[in-house]
Amino acid sequence: MWENLKGFLADYKMTAIKLLFALLIVFIIVQYNSYGERAAAHYIFLQIKNGIIREICIAPSKNIVSDFEEGINNTYIIVKDRQIPVEAKWGTVIPRDNLYMIIIMDKDRDGRRVYETDDINARLLLATKDKDEEAEGCRSFYHISRKAVF
Closest by alpha carbon to 94, among 130, 69, 64, 70? Predict the structure, then answer.
């Protein structure tokens, strides 16, 4: 065992390069998992500015209610006093303090698009100034004219 360790450490430059490469891979994975929600919020913001999205609703992840019955989808998100039906896969989301759900309110009630975001971006999309206020509610963007934003 010691001979293998001595042989491995004898070529320390290659060992250092392999270690740095492994740490880079771990760093990239952690960054992707941490900031994937922010990328979704940026994507939604661009769609709002382009006039594609006309109304959104945002609710904390603790407001997801799921009641599975035989063949019936009873998964919905409660936004203030509204119950918005969503796909059953969103019923398995683990509630966290800083996890918010963005629901795109299209005409199609069954296939609504839902995205995850953090509390900072939820407040930015709802345009709430107070940090103590919960980022929850619906907002309409019908007044924004259609223009190309990149």
Answer: 64
Distance between CA atoms of residues 144 and 5, nearest Å: 65
Is 64 buried (19+), middle (13-18) or exposed (0-12) by CB count in 10 A? Answer: buried
Let me know: does 102 contact 121? Beta carbons within 8 Å.
no
What the block records as the tokens of 134 is 């919960």
Partners of 99 in beta bridges: 118
Nearest to 94 by CA among 72, 116, 124: 116
| HSE value, Cβ hemisphere, 13 Å, CA-based, for 116 | 18
What is the distance between the alpha carbons of residues 53 and 111, in angstroms, rounded to a whole number? 15
pTM: 0.67
Question: Quick one: pLDDT band at residue 139, thresholds 50, 70, 90?
Answer: confident
Main-chain phi, psi angles of 6, to 5 degrees:
-65, -40
Instruction: Report the chain's C-alpha Rg in angstroms.
Output: 22
Tell me what pLDDT residue 41 has. 83
